[in-house]
Fold:
Amino acid sequence: MSNQMPNLLLFNKPFNVLCQFTDEPEFKDQRQTLADYINQPGFYAAGRLDRDSEGLLLLTNDGKLQQQIANPKTKQPKTYLVQVEGEVTKEAIKQLAQGVQLKDGLTRPAKARKVSEPKWLWERNPPVRERKNIPTNWIELTITEGKNRQVRRMTAAVGFPTLRLIRIQIGKWKLGNLGLGESSLLENQSI
Structure:
């Protein structure tokens, strides 16, 4: 790795894809992994995105860059579009922005705002469950830490369970118009 340029692969991870190249032996050929989409030897994920989340995942061929991106100490901001159940209130947005008390402590202040459903958004397979009497709303949320399932726990803590979670930006790198399951190689990258 040391003689190579630090390259970065931006990947639009579909729902239900594991953020690893191999699965546990007991699930062999039952679940999709990064290997089903990416054929770039020497690239490894810089951070994680849960199997039930979608959107931007960064992979790199450089261990130092991988550590800089994934390390919570560098506080790379991560921006998500979150579809939640219910009619989001101004108070909930204010709570998300100030920080939310979770079982493992208070989250750092975040950037939070209610947004419209993106026009460019792809259909999820399988679709998000719908309830005729309960509306859904979208929130754009930017956090600078990465507690386990943090965004989902934050929205639930303020009374709005997450139905769909899509990461659209990590630091300076954006999902942009990258299609679902597609990747884009960027050469000679740094934080």
Summary: The longest helix spans residues 90-98. Residues 112 and 141 are 5 Å apart (CA to CA). DSSP finds three helices and eleven strands in the chain.
